[in-house]
Write a structure and sequence with these properties.
- The structure is a single chain.
- With about 400 residues, the chain is α/β, with parallel strands linked by helices.
- The chain has 14 helices and 15 strands.
- Strands 5-14-15-11-10-6-7 form a 7-stranded mixed β-sheet, with helices on both faces. The chain has a 3-stranded antiparallel β-sheet with strand order 1-2-3, with no helix packed on it. A 3-stranded antiparallel β-sheet has the order 4-9-8, with helices on one face.
- α11 runs antiparallel to α12 and α11 crosses α13.
- It starts with 5 loop residues before the first strand and ends in a 7-residue tail after the last helix.
- It folds into 2 domains: about 260 residues, Rossmann fold; about 110 residues, Homeodomain-like (Arc Repressor Mutant, subunit A), CATH 1.10.10.60.
- The chain is globular and about 55 Å long.
């Protein structure tokens, strides 16, 4: 089976005519930037003779998550002072967007001391990789996975292509030795072929979810979520979900403050991580686009204030009904749910970086009482504020 017209990160469902075509990911501009993204990361890129560029509109912004407990494997959390090594696997038919996204996100991570959080490498099943619109040559082979702390399997254009046996063996060996393994989009087919998803929950692009479930019945496939965290094995949906998965990994490794900085550098919100669907049913487009960016900035600056839905609507100069509709369209959630998660993220940063008491953290993050703070924090973060603080204060890697 070949997913319809899946090229260079762009996944389009082909129909009999243009009206039947469902465009899912606008990444054509990445073709011009891919060489720069790969330069110095273990690969060089050159243009191929593929068909003319095809532009696709964006995949509906999927922003849901299913997260298990943040269990880090033997090499998932380094306490020996060595830099965490992320190795991304390239093979024929690799989706360029999925290959580039983890490179860009993890390369941008900086710790409080200013040093990089990750060493990023690209390795290949073979030296010369055909990525469709371009070809590239990688410097490292699959032996690089032996030293990986995190292995990333990007999406592939043809999900019917047989998974190379050397790749299966190398990924299994890396996982056995303690590496964390994550797949992006249709990379879930590569990961499932290793057997590491057996008995676990997983996701992939919603267009491919049915085929993943059919081919690997031992995997519990959830087509409605943004990504699934099963501890040392993670999977994400398509296109922009790769950014969310990578930021989630950063948050697991280094905490909310470091992840928030990485999110800002990626021009991404950090609150895209809970209770929402992989794709959003859009209302008819308004005649005039209304951006909530200024409202979101204002909310970030006033998290400590006692804000009601009416307060937010007045700031946005619109009715409560219009605010809720625009919020759903642009963030995938409600204003108050967005505010709640933003407050929890603020609290996480304070717990990581300050000695403030739990009472002061709750107040500074905008929670009306310590009891409400504990309740909401546990629901979003999966642990108590005290346990969260102990976990991150015990990590020597965060020391400057």
């Amino acid at each position: 089976m070949r997913l319809p017209v899946w090229r260079t990160g762009a996944l389009c469902a082909s129909g009999k005519n243009d009206n039947d075509r469902q465009d899912l990911a606008s990444v054509a501009h990445w073709e011009g930037e891919i060489a720069a993204a790969l330069r110095g990361r273990g690969a060089t890129a050159s243009r191929g003779d593929g068909p003319r560029r095809r532009r696709c509109s964006g995949e509906p912004a999927g922003i849901a998550v299913v997260a298990a407990a943040a269990v880090v494997g033997k090499r998932g959390a380094r306490h020996d002072g060595a830099m965490h090594r992320v190795v991304i696997v390239a093979l024929d038919g690799v989706v360029a967007f999925d290959l580039s996204t983890p490179i860009e996100v993890f390369e941008r991570v900086r710790l409080a001391s200013g040093r990089p959080g990750y060493q990023v490498q690209v390795c290949g099943v073979k030296r010369d990789i055909d990525a469709g619109r371009f070809r590239m040559r990688v410097r490292r082979g699959l032996s690089a996975l032996r030293k990986a702390d995190t292995v990333i399997l990007p999406g592939i254009a043809d999900i019917a292509r047989q998974v190379p046996e050397p790749l299966i063996r190398a990924v299994r060996r890396a996982a056995k030795e303690g590496a964390r393994v994550a797949s992006i989009c249709s990379g879930a087919f590569l990961l499932a072929a290793t057997g590491l998803l057996d008995g676990k929950r997983a996701t992939t692009h919603w267009l491919a979810a049915g085929e993943l479930a059919r081919r690997f019945p031992q995997v519990s496939v959830d087509p409605s979520v943004l990504y699934v965290d099963e501890g040392n094995v993670l999977t994400s949906a398509g296109a922009a979900a790769a950014l969310d998965l990578c930021l989630h990994i950063v948050r697991r490794d280094y905490g909310a403050a470091v992840a928030a900085t990485a999110a800002r550098l990626s021009v991404m919100p950090l609150e895209r991580d809970g209770g929402q669907a992989q794709f959003i049913e859009q209302a008819p487009a308004p005649t005039e686009h209304v951006s909530l960016s200024r409202v979101l900035e204002w909310l970030e600056e006033h998290l400590h204030d006692d804000l009601s839905l009416g307060d937010i609507a007045r700031r946005a100069a619109m009715s409560v009904r219009s605010l809720s509709r625009h919020f759903k369209e642009q963030t995938g959630t409600t204003p108050l749910q967005w505010l709640l998660k933003a407050r929890v993220r603020r609290a996480q940063a304070l717990l990581e970086t300050t000695p403030l008491s739990i009472e002061r953290v709750a107040s500074s993050a905008g929670f009306g009482s310590v009891a409400a703070f504990r309740q909401h924090f546990h629901r979003v973060a999966g642990t108590s504020p005290q346990a969260y603080r102990r976990a991150f204060q015990s990590r020597p890697r965060r020391a400057s």
